[in-house]
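User: Continuing from earlier, I have the next pair ready.

Assistant: Great, send them over.

User: Here they are, in order.

Assistant: Folding the first of the pair now:
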Amino acid sequence: MIKRRNTKQIQIGNVKIGGDAPISVQSMCNTDTCDIEATLRQLNEFADRGCEIARLAVLNEDAACAIKNIVKKSPLPLVADIHFDYRLAIECLNNGIHALRLNPGNIGKRENVEKVVKLAKINQTPIRIGVNGGSLEKNLIDAEMPLSEKMVQSALGHIKILENLDFDLIKVSLKSSDVMTTIEAYRSIAEKIPYPLHLGVTEAGTMRQGLIKSSIGLGTLLAEGIGDTIRVSLTENPVEEVTAGFDILKALGLRKRGVNFVSCPTCGRTRIDLISLAKKVEERFKDIEAPITIATMGCAVNGPGEARHADFGIAGGVGEGLIFQKGEIIAKVPESELLDKLEEIIRKSYK
C-alpha cells in the first residue's frame, strides 16, 4: 500500500485536499469564461465524468464578472486562474470563487498582494501557487542551478510572501513539460513544505504523448506518496483529462471509482475481433461508477483463468464466446450476442 505524504488539509468548495482526503481529479475549461452558457455546459460534462474541481481562465474584467453567475450554477468547485492583475482576483473573490491560482510575486506592489490575501483570508479561499518551468522570474532564469531547483526556489519565494501575511491556505504546483524535471521539482519541494501538492506535467502534448508523459510523471510521484490533487494536461477535449486522471489513480490503487477495464493483447490464439470488442466494452460500461473490474479476453483457453480476479468478463471463441464471473463460466453465447448478454448480466447488479 502506498503511504502518502502527510500534509496540511485545505478545502476548495466541498472538496478536501491533502491530509487523509482522496486524491482529487481536476481539469480546466477551454471555453471563453465570458460565455457563461458554454462554460456551464462544459462544467456539467466534467461533472458527468466525475471531475471534482475545475479551473477557469480569467483574462479580463468581463470574465471576472461572469464568475458570479457561473459559481451560482456550477456543479463543481471553481478555481480562477489569475495572472498579473490583482483587481481580477479581488473581483473573483467578491463573486464567490472557491479558490485562486495566483502567484503573489507576479501581481505587483505589496499593498496589492495584501488586498488579495486579506480578502482571501476573510473568505477562507485557498490560493494555489502555480510555478511553470517556462515562466520563471528573471533572477532565477539566469541562476546557475538545475531547472527543477529554480522552480522550487520560485515556489518558496511565493509561499514566503503568503506566510508573511499570515496566510496558509496554500496549494502548490511545479510543472514542467519535461517529465524528469517535474518529478525532481516535486520530490524536492515535498521535503520542504507542509502544503498539499497539485501534480501535473504541463504542455504534455496530444492524447498519446500526453498520456505517456503524464502517466510516467504523475504515476512516479503518486507511487512515492507525493501528490494530493492532479490534472492530466492534454491537447484534447478537456473532458478526456478527467477520465485519464482517474485511470492513473485506479492503476495505482489510489481511487476505486468506476470500472477497471482489463483486456489481453492479441495473439495467434485469438479468433474474435478482440480490439473492436474491447473498445465496445469500455464504451458500453463507462457510465458505471461502481469500482468493478470487467475483462475482455481473446480466447477461451486462458481467458477465464487469467482474468479470474475480474468481477465479470468475456472470452472469445470461434463464432461464440464465454461469459464468466470471478473465473466461473456462467454462459456461452453466439459472438453476435456476447456484448448484449454481458450487459444484461452486469446491469442487474450495477447501474
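And the other member of the pair:
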Amino acid sequence: MVKNAIETNNLTKFYGKARGIENVTFSVEEGEIFGFIGPNGAGKSTTIRTLLSLIYPSSGSAKIFGMDCNKQAPEVLKRIGYLPSEVFYYDGMKVKDLLNYSASFYKKDCKKRIQELSERMNLDLNKKIDDLSFGNKKKVGIVQGLLHSPDLIILDEPTSGLDPLMQQTFFDLLEEENKRGAAVLMSSHILGEVQRLCNRVAIIKEGKIIKLEKISTLQEASYKRFKFEIQNEIPKDYFAIKGVNDLKVEGKTHSFIFKGDINTITTKLSNVRLTNLWADEPDLEEIFMHYYSKEV
C-alpha cells in the first residue's frame, strides 16, 4: 500500500476577505518528487506555509506522514527540510555557527553532513552571513534544509539566485536525497525544473488546483505543436477550430498547439498546399501556458 508524505483535503486560507487558497486537495507519495507550479501570487507559498504551520488554515486539513500539521507540528517539523523562496538570517553569525545552531534542534551529529554539503555547494563556512551575496545565502538555506537528512524536503522557488552550475549541483543533490527515500515537494514557476525532476505536478491558478497530472501525461496527452509554411492563400482563421490554441499567423507561416483527434488537423491540412511542415511534442512551458490562458 502506497503511503502519503503529504495529504491535503480542501485546504483553504483567507486573509480577511482576500483570497489565499481555496479547497486545495492533493497528495504527495512517500519517495515522490512532486511539482507545484503557478506564477507568483497563485497560492504556492500560502499552501507551503500552511503545511509548515507557519500560518493556520481557515478550513480544511493537512497531514504530513499521517500527522496533523497543526496539532502535531513539533513532530512533523522534525522530519522536514524546508527552503523558503527568500532567506533571512542573523547577520552577525558565521555560516558554520548558523548551521551548527540549526543542527542542534535535531539532536543528532550533523557536522560531517554540513561539511559534505558545504563542499558540494562551494560554500565558505567561515564567512559571516552579512558578507554573503544573495546566491550564497541561498546555498546556506540549501545546506540548512538538508543537513539532517529529512524524510520530506519542501522547496519554495529553490533556484532563484543560484548560477547554472550551482543549479545543476542542487538538482543532483535532490535526486540523491530522493534515491535515499526522501519525498520532495517543489514549488516553482520555472517549468524546466519541474519537467526535469518531478513525477507528477499540480497546477495552481488563483488559489485553486486546476490540474493534477503526471508530467508524462501532460506532455503526451494528445498535445502536438504544429508549424507549417503554405503555398496557397487561406483565411487567417482557417485553423481557428476546437482544440487549437496559441494560433499564430505570420505571412505564410502558421503555428499552434493542438489537443484532440489528430485527424481533425490532417483533414484541414489536406486542403492546403504545403511548402514545409513540422509536428512535434510541445514542452511543458507551452502546455502550462495553455492551462493559464483559459479555464480547464
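Worth noting for the second one:
The chain has a mean pLDDT of 89. Residues 4-216 form a domain with the Rossmann fold fold (CATH 3.40.50.300).
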